[in-house]
Amino acid sequence: MDWIINDELGLTVGHLVGWTSASFMVVGGVLPYIPQYRQIKQTQDPEGFSLHVCLALLVANTLRILFW
Fold this sequence. Notes:
The protein is mostly helical and 68 residues long. It has 3 helices and 2 strands, in the order ββααα.
């Protein structure tokens, strides 16, 4: 049973969970790149940049979006 938060809007807990999970799917693809970017920015050295990590993240996020 979904609880109705506001009768006028018809907003239910199911809708909120759906919007939250969809938003996380969009933003979550970028989050793993932030530590790598910060390391490169702090050291001013692109040695921390790994193409293999980028490839793995891109494939994983593409599969996640296709699954969704």
